Amino acid sequence: MKYQRSSALFAEAKKYIPGGVNSPVRAFKAVGGEPIFVKRAKGAYLYDEDGNELIDFIASWGPLILGHAHAPVINAVVEKAKMGTSFGMPTEIETQLAQLAVSMVPNIDKIRFVNSGTEACMSAVRLARGYTGKDKIIKFSGCYHGHSDSFLIQAGSGAVTFGSPNSPGVTQGTAKDTLLAQYNDLDSVKALVEANKGTLAAIIIEPVAGNMGCIVPTTPFLKGLRELCTAEGILLIFDEVMTGFRLGRGGAQEALGIAADVLCFGKVIGGGLPVGAFAARKEIMDHLAPDGPVYQAGTLSGNPLAMSAGLAMLTELNERPEVFASLADKTAYLHEGFDAVLATKDVPYQINRFGSMISVHFTEDPVTDFASSAKGNNAYFKTYFHGMLKQGVYLPPSAFESYFLNDALSYADLDKTIAALSHLEF
Ligand code: KE4
Question: What is the mean pLDDT of the chain?
Fold first, then answer.
């Protein structure tokens, strides 16, 4: 593989854009080397600026679940663009996408569109605080809900004290209202609830985690969370930015059989254009401006161009739910192939999978939370990432990410991917 043009483009980008990228994970900091610049993509394949064809397991971090440049989505966007892209006024297509999303997702009556998953989660927390009149939230170490201040928090000193900022620019004043629990550890949540009785507005969680690699919640953990929130009057927020419209029509709520109070969406709901959303039952959503006192707004929120991509995407997924089973089968096939190959290599490994989300961790112990995910051997991961890339397979450039399969991937692509793994020496 040659990367001269990507390298030259990266040097130029760094002159004008911090780190040469518009989102840090793209810069390959966790795996070393320089990022690949993409020229175009179609179906399961990326075509970089040096003419290399890559099998894509990122799908733009989730949105392109039916593959790149999927004709029904592209056609919808092109046709809509000819009529104007955004008016800052209500349009019918917003209601059409809202109606469809509400029909697919359990436990929601109303939905508000925004422009990113970050905005969706940030707004959902403000709504929960406004609805409950409480200030504090609990999140989980290793879960990522976007880059708004309330979420950029690491464990404070001691298990039941306040969080502390994990980024400059986040104030202690903000951090004190975010408490950190451990994924799959219900006791860590109960301890925080006991120590902060009557002050908690919400618990926000990735119902299947994708930002520590893929981590599946145990049923007792998620069920216990639901029961605790119900008993304590705390809103349970499912951040389904990754899982929504990926694990099935009804996302993680349907796949796991747990009802959340507030849902956050992104990625697939926008069909590859910038769309986020948050949703809940009517009694909660009616607290949002202009009906209620909780303020939230956005110039391009619900713009018809992005709505056209989201509507085309969700319409197809709603009409062809067999796609979800097809994706799950392909992911299971990849899992089995990787397992058979890695068992012959002299490396410790774990493979976590749920639906079309999967990740490989180079560690002896099961990966069930952030601490166990962080035990992964990053030297092995770098060998794995670059070794696969050299053979035309593009994986997430970090061990703390989930892969996102797209349904344009063929079994031949999966066999090529498994074969590429078999050629690696660790
Ligand atoms: P965005 O603001 O990036 O649209 O969504 C934030 C977000 C919220 N919730 C979950 C569960 C998420 O995974 C994300 C964003 N995911 C990352 C991938 N780990 C996006 C990639 C990036 O940051 O460039």
Answer: 96
Query: What's this model's pTM, rounded to 2 decimal places?
Result: 0.97
> Is 47 a residue of the active site?
no
Domain residue limits, the chain: 4-69+321-422, 71-319
- What is the model's pLDDT at position 2? 77
Q: Taking residues 210-234, what's their average pLDDT?
A: 98
Residues with CB under 6 A from ligand 1: 23, 25, 61, 116-118, 121, 144-146, 206, 210-211, 239, 241-242, 266, 276, 401
Distance, C-alpha 128 to centroid of its chain? 21
Q: What is the mean pLDDT of residues 53-64?
A: 98
State how far the alpha carbon of 280 is from the alpha carbons of 56, 205, 275, in Å: 34, 15, 17
What is the CB neighbour count within 10 angstroms for residue 32?
11
Q: What is the largest CA-CA distance in the chain?
A: 61
* For ligand 1, atom 5: residue with the closest CA: 117
For 40, 68, 251, the CA distances from 266, given in Å and listed in that order, are 22, 17, 12
Chain segment 254-273, per-residue pLDDT in tens: 999 999 999 999 999 999 99
Q: Is the pLDDT reported for residue 159 higher than 50?
A: no
pLDDT digits (tens, 9 = 90+) for 288-298: 999 999 999 99
Q: Which of 270, 311, 272 minimizes the C-alpha distance to 60?
A: 272
Strands (E) located in 53-195: 53-56, 110-114, 136-140, 153-154, 164-165, 178-181
Is 267 one of the annotated active-site residues of the chain? yes
- Cα of 130 from ligand 1 centre, angstroms: 24
User: Which letter does DSSP use for residue 210 in this model?
Assistant: -
Residue with tokens 């663009």: 81
> Which residues are within 8 A (CB) of 274 and not within 5 positions of it... i.e. 6 or more apart?
115, 116, 300, 306
CA of 152 to the centre of ligand 1 (A): 13
Tell me the pLDDT tens digit for each residue of 115-149: 999 999 999 999 999 999 999 999 999 999 999 99
* Distance from the alpha carbon of residue 146 to the mean position of ligand 1, in angstroms: 5
Query: Which amino acid residue places its CA nearest to atom 13 of ligand 1?
Result: 242
Catalytic, out of 131, 144, 183, 394: 144
Domain 71-319 -> CATH class: alpha beta
Average pLDDT of span 341-349: 97
> What CATH architecture does domain 4-69+321-422 belong to?
Alpha-Beta Complex (3.90)
Confidence bin at 299 (pLDDT 50/70/90): very high
